[in-house]
Structure to design on (196 residues):
């Protein structure tokens, strides 16, 4: 069962709890920045998207960390501020961290992502992962947690400019998209030194 509070620009925080896992959501306020990034990505699809996960195009071949690309450096600073807010009052709050992988996903009509998690899929050793939604009309993402008694799921239809932060080993999938050229930004976080 999910615990939810509506997330809006006026009330930007939301948390979903699935068994022992938590998915935190934040309204990402810098709309101009995200709009300009989305235009850049869509105008240069052939440049950035040279690889596929099999079901969706990704920038992973262009750069392992898109935040190191000069055109996206402003996103890095805004993103770190948002992550700091989401980590408050969590076991991770006092630990230093860095984003070690980041990529854009570009979905054509009919594209989807099957059930996966970021620990096994990328073999990254990360603890937290995130997704930032750059556009409206997003198809649902579903988080699934298996425990010994039953399967628990949360299906969320993300809003434009919303950022989700979740445990990297959380299983999730994206349903088939119905809008041409849907763009999302995903990333993985590692913690320096000791962690929880």
């Amino acid at each position: 069962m999910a615990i939810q509070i509506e997330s809006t620009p006026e009330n930007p925080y939301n948390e979903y709890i699935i068994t022992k896992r938590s998915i935190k959501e934040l309204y990402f306020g810098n709309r101009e920045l995200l709009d300009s990034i989305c235009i850049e990505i869509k105008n240069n699809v052939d440049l950035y998207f040279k690889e596929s996960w099999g079901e969706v195009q990704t920038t992973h071949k262009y750069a392992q960390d898109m935040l190191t690309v000069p055109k996206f450096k402003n996103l890095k600073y805004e993103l770190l501020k948002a992550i700091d807010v989401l980590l408050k009052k969590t076991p991770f709050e006092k630990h230093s961290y860095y984003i070690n992988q980041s990529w854009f996903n570009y979905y054509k009509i009919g594209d989807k992502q099957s059930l996966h998690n970021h620990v096994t899929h990328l073999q990254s050793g990360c603890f937290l992962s995130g997704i930032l939604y750059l556009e409206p009309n997003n198809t649902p993402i579903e988080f699934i947690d298996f425990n010994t008694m039953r399967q628990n799921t949360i299906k969320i239809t993300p809003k434009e400019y919303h950022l989700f932060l979740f445990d990297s080993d959380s299983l999730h999938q994206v349903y088939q998209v119905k809008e041409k050229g849907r763009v999302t930004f995903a990333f993985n976080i590692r913690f320096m030194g000791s962690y929880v």
Notes: Residues 150 and 169 are 18 Å apart (CA to CA). The chain has a mean pLDDT of 83. The two ends are 25 Å apart (CA to CA). The longest strand covers residues 97-107.
